[in-house]
Amino acid sequence: MEKTVSKMQEVINSAECLYSFTDIEMALDNMAEAITEKLKDQNPLIICVMIGALIPTGHLLTRLNFPLEVDYIHATRYRGETRGGDLHWLVEPRQSLKGRTILIVDDVMDAGLTLAAIIDYCKQMGANVVYTAVMVNKERKREPGVNFEPDFNGLFVSEDKFLVGFGLDYNEYLRNLPGIYAVADEHQ
User: Fold this and answer.
1) Residue 185 CB burial class (10 angstroms; 0-12, 13-18, ≥19)
2) Which of 29, 41, 86, 110 is labelled catalytic?
3) Burial 60-85 (b: 16+ CB within 10 A, else e)
4) What is the rounded end-to-end Cα distance, in angstroms, of the chain?
5) Could you tell me if 48 and 54 are in contact, meaning their C-beta atoms sit under 8 angstroms apart?
6) What pLDDT band is residue 108 in, cutting at 50, 70 and 90?
7) Which residues pair with 157 in a beta bridge?
8) Residue in 62, 65, 76 with CA at minimum distance from that of residue 40
9) Which string of DSSP letters, residue by residue, matches 145-174?
10) Using alpha carbons only, how large is the chain's radius of gyration in Å?
11) What's the pTM value of the predicted model, to 2 decimals?
12) Distance of CA 57 to the CA centre of its chain
């Protein structure tokens, strides 16, 4: 346990802050404005992708002042690791998606495989239309078969670095950092 705490402190101390909490707040305001413009009259179901989108979704919801419902989905490729593997479905939404306008909120758009699978799932469950919002969009080449970009983006990162903070984790730690940080190369 002490070794883990020490390791996480090393990761924090060597990380580069890319976006401060103030930057994030402004990005959330902009996202909320765009989402409100598009979805305010559609009674959307907001689906939080656990665990990473928990923090961004919570902050975003307080900025959306129109009727909506909230649910969550838990699908992961990382399972506590820093590299993705096969997709594992842990929890499906409780609400019916049939005929609904869906907004999936995720922490990061990276390779795009997880978000693509969740979009497909929503469509298979009968969603009328599916929108996506991400706190951070990594501007990088997507995996083969991923042919979309998020509808609503908070922040953009052009370098393909491992990110932590504001929901993004490092071995299930550091989600609580009040900014977006790039992990130093020696810890990736």
Assistant:
1) exposed
2) 110
3) beeebeeebebbbbebbbbeeeeeee
4) 20
5) yes
6) very high
7) 138
8) 65
9) T-----SEEEEEE-S---EEBTTB-BTTB-
10) 16
11) 0.91
12) 8
Tokens coding 73: 């989905």
Mean pLDDT, range 113-141, rounded to an integer? 94
**CA–CA separation, 174 and 163 (whole Å):** 10
* CA 56 centroid distance within chain: 7
Collect contacts of 16-21 with beta carbons under 8 A, ≥24 apart: 16/181, 16/182, 16/184, 17/179, 17/180, 17/181, 18/155, 18/157, 18/163, 18/179, 18/180, 18/181, 18/182, 19/155, 19/179, 19/180, 20/178, 20/179, 21/166, 21/178, 21/179
Examine the residue annotation and report whether 110 is marked as an active-site residue of this protein.
Answer: yes
Question: What pLDDT, on a 0 to 100 scale, did the predictor assign at position 82?
Answer: 47
Instruction: Find the range with the poorest average confidence among 79-88, 136-145, 161-170.
Output: 79-88
Dihedral of CA atoms 158, 163, 165, 167 in degrees, nearest 10, equals: 90
Per the DSSP assignment, residues forming a β-bridge with 73 are 49
Answer yes or no: is pLDDT of 56 > 70: yes
| Rounded (10°) angle between helices 21-39 and 54-61 | 60
pLDDT above 70: residue 119: yes
